[in-house]
Design brief:
With about 400 residues, the protein is α/β, with parallel strands linked by helices. The protein is about 40% helix and about 15% strand. It contains 13 helices and 15 strands. It has helices at about 10-15, 20-25, 45-55, 70-85, 100-110, 125-135, 155-160, 185-195, 255-265, 270-285, 285-310, 335-345, 370-385; strands at about 35, 95, 115-120, 135-140, 145, 150, 165-170, 200-205, 230-235, 245-250, 315, 325-330, 345-350, 350, 365. A 7-stranded mixed beta sheet has the order 2-10-9-8-7-3-4, with helices on both faces. α8 links the parallel β7 (about 165-170) and β8. α3 (about 45-55) runs antiparallel to α10, α4 runs parallel beside α10 and α11 (about 285-310) packs parallel to α13 (about 370-385). Keywords: Aminotransferase, Pyridoxal phosphate, Transferase. Its cofactor is pyridoxal 5'-phosphate. It catalyses: L-aspartate + 2-oxoglutarate = oxaloacetate + L-glutamate.
Amino acid sequence: MTLIQTLRAEARAAPESGIVAVVNHGRLRDGLIPLWAGEGDLPTPSFISDAAARGLANGETFYTWQKGIPELRQALARYYARHFGKRLAEEEFIVTASGMHAIQLAIDAIAGSGDEVIYLSPAWPNFAAAAGVAGAVPVAVTLDQSGNGWSCDVDKIASAITPRTKALFVNTPSNPTGWTADKETLQAILDLARARNLWIIADEIYSLFHYGHGRAPSFLDVATAEDRILFVNSFSKNWAMTGWRVGWIKTHPALQQVFENLIQYSTSGVAQFMQRGAVAALDEGDGFIDSQVERARAARDLVCDILGATGKARFTVPQGALYLFFTVDGITDSRTAAFDIVDDANVGLAPGTAFGPGGEAFLRLCFHRRLDQLEEGAHRLAKWMKTV
């Protein structure tokens, strides 16, 4: 028996990230334009970094509140009051070591060995992989695509539910498709979850990256306080803090101790000086978010114009999030295409194969970058498309 055979089957089965595989292939190439990862190109703004630096200088380097410092949980309550019109108590928030950690804790609280969790695909691959590592079975329900864009057929979700189903994972606005659920769809999903006694894990990280009027619709718009919903979120996207690894869960106050315990036995809390930066992000960062969203809107439109003009790229203009999910005429193997694009166009994209059922023929481009670099990358892609 080899060393690897002595590990848990779930650990051995954890898939290599299809995104990281391409990143590792091309990350050291001179002049490569990296559009593969879900992050922008701006560093964290100084009003956030300075607040963290002050906390560090003040000696905030000791163990702290497992569930997050009170000031940060109060700032989260203020953030939801401003952007969602909801008066929430600080006891409804748990600070986590990233949005990914929030998802892991949500899964740990709801599903275990043999349980099933349904998610909408194509999807960010980390949820399904995290469920598998926990011993649960991720079940994909594909979004529908037509000339009218991406949509969710709630009847398909209902058909996928079995006696083993414990939760529905819903990411809207969606990474990678940009699909954004309207309030009616959210209500239908919530009604289904209520009828079947299921939890919803709501990933609304891109709520403010919405290109309609105001933020995207949220389960908070249709839910009651007693609904079985865990909201998982992160500071990464709104405030250019991807490397900080700070997130949160919004949950019912009655569950706070459970999640505090789960944090104790996973990370034992987020560094207090980093939480000071997160407080500044929430309280002082609305203007920065507005500028980020407008920058992303202009970038989205630029990329869509350039790639659309080729006559070979097929896509729906995304309603939200930071990604263009597109196909290219003649390309069916997106993994091979992503490596070829690195080699031949010196542009990094994520292959749709990384995003599960329904994504195999697609490529994902993150357009959250400065316009001159994005324009150059789009023109390189357009030139490459002429060769296939």
